[in-house]
Amino acid sequence: MTRHARNCTAGAVYTYNEKKKDAAESGYGTNAQRLGKDSVKSFDCCSLSLQPCRNPVITKDGYLFDKEAILQYIITKKNEYSRKLKEYERLRKLEEEEQSQEANRQQESKVEQFVKSGKPVNGTVELPSSSKSSTSNKVDKSSISNMANGHEKKLPSFWLPENCPNAGRAKAIKPESTIFCPVSEKPLKAKDLIDVKFTLLKDGDSSKSLIAKEARYMCPVTHDVLSNAVPCAVLRPTGDVVTMECVEKLIKKDMIHPLTNQKLKEKDIIPLQRGGTGYAFTNENLEGKEKRPMLQV
Questions:
Q1: Pfam families in the record, alphabetically (predicted)?
Q2: Helix (H, G, I), strand (E, B) or coil at 242
Q3: What is the pTM of this model?
Q4: Range(s) of the domain holding residue 260
C-alpha cells in the first residue's frame, strides 16, 4: 500500500500538519514561528536604532549602542526626571498646605467645642447646635438604600470622573533618579560606556559600501570573519572585538592582551550580546507566539 501525502484528506486521523494548517487559516489557536534573520538585529547594530553603529559603545553587560543614540536616551531620561521632580515638589507642597489647614481646622473645632461646653451664669445648660441637629436628624444605619443618609443629593452617575473611588488630587510619589539600560534594565551611567573598535575585513572589494557588505569585520588576532553565528567579546582596555575562541584558547592562558601585551583581568573581557539567525541558535527567545481565540466545540 502506498503512502498517503502529507495533506491527504482521506485518512481517518486528523494529523498534526492538517491541524496546524487549519489553525493558521481559521484564525484560531496559537501560532508559533521561529524568528528569522530579518527579525533579529545584527551583532554590530545598535540596540536602540537597530542600524549599524557609527561610534559603537558597549555597556558592562555587553549590549552594543551607537554613542549618539544612547547619549540622547540618557539626556531624555534626565530631562524626564527633572520634570517629574518639579511635579513631585509641587504636589508635596500642596499636601503640606492641606495638612496645615486640616490641623488649624481641628484646633478651631476643639476651641469651639470647649467654649460651647461651658456653663452659663444662670445655671441652665444648653445643648450645642451640632448635638441638637444630631438628635433631630438621626442617621438610619440599617437602611441599605443608596439614596438614604444624604446620598439622595448626590448624582448616581458613578461613571463620571469626579465620582470615581480614586478621584481627587494625585499623590506625590518621588521619581526614581536612576537611569536604567533600555535592554537589560540595569543601572546605566554615561561614564560606564566603553568605546568599541571593530577591525575592518580586508577583502579588497572597494566597490561596495561598508553597510552593503554582509561580512564587514574580522577578529584582529585570528582574522576570523565576525557574524551573528560567531560568539565575540570586547577587550575593555582597547575596545577590540575578538572571538570567544580566541579568548578561550589564547587570552585566558596568560591573561595578556594579544595586541598591546597589557595585563588583563577577568572583568576586562566583556561578552558581546548578539542577535540571531533563522538557522543557528545563538541566544534565547528566538520564537514568536501569537495567542488567538480557541475554537471550542
A1: Rtf2, zf-NOSIP
A2: strand
A3: 0.64
A4: 197-273
